[in-house]
Amino acid sequence: MAKKIGVILSGCGVKDGAEIHEAVCAMLALDRAGAEIVCLAPNKDQADVVNHVTGAPQGEKRNVLVEAARIARGQIRDVATVKASDLDRAIVPGGFGAAKNLCTFASDGPDCKVDPGVQKLLRDLHAAKKPIGALCIAPALVAAIFGKDVKPELTIGTDEGTAKALEKMGAKHVKTPVTDIVVDRKNKIATTACYMLATRISEVAAGAEKVVKAVLEMA
């Protein structure tokens, strides 16, 4: 039976939602591995809406779930309605949405708060010893949820400021090149830098594929 992998999206677009390249590369790797993809997102307003041409705030409201449905081709579930027993694993792509909509790391740093539905699902998956993967800035979300309790080993690449913030939350940061990953086997968590360091989509794909492989192989 195919493993059911939750892909937790945070909107659509790097500046205010899920990073599309990271989401698609991860989903492609999952599909090629024969996994069943279950896309999820919080059903709430985005923290902000950004014009991706100019980088300027748009001053409008958009719903995280509705926007993430663009990536999921409409096949998406409200994360708050999904139980850990519904899934075998989870992957969280990056993009600023992971740090704005899944948690408030973008504005609050180490003092950030996590979306309740996302926090409950990931905590329950971890408690059930089901692996979790996180790409780009999404390891900040993992640090916010698990840092104080289990001190997970993570990477966001080489950015010192972000690494220090993750460590302040209790995580152990490991510097890595763009396509390398860190696998915390004790906590069943795999992470990679993706666009925290990448300059081309092939680098994103290489890291995402390694994380997917690690998450699928961890017992």
Give a structural overview:
By secondary structure, the protein is an alpha/beta fold. The protein has one domain (4-217): Class I glutamine amidotransferase (GATase) domain (Rossmann fold, 3-Layer(aba) Sandwich), CATH 3.40.50. The protein contains 8 helices and 9 strands. It has helices at residues 20-32, 64-71, 96-100, 105-108, 116-127, 139-150, 160-168, 201-217, and strands at 4-8, 36-41, 76-78, 89-92, 132-135, 153-154, 172-173, 181-184, 189-192. The strands form 2 sheets. Strands 3-2-1-4-5-9-8 form a 7-stranded mixed β-sheet, with helices on both faces. Strands 6-7 form a two-stranded parallel ribbon. Strand 1, helix 1 and strand 2 form a beta-alpha-beta unit. Helix 1 (20-32) crosses helix 8 (201-217) and helix 6 packs parallel to helix 7. The radius of gyration is 15 Å and the shape is globular.
Spell out the key features of this protein:
Rossmann fold; alpha/beta; single chain; two-stranded parallel ribbon; 7-stranded mixed sheet; 8 helices; 219 residues
Give me a quick take on this structure:
The chain is an alpha/beta fold and 219 residues long. The chain has helices at 20-32, 64-71, 96-100, 105-108, 116-127, 139-150, 160-168, 201-217, and strands spanning 4-8, 36-41, 76-78, 89-92, 132-135, 153-154, 172-173, 181-184, 189-192. It is 37% helix and 16% strand.
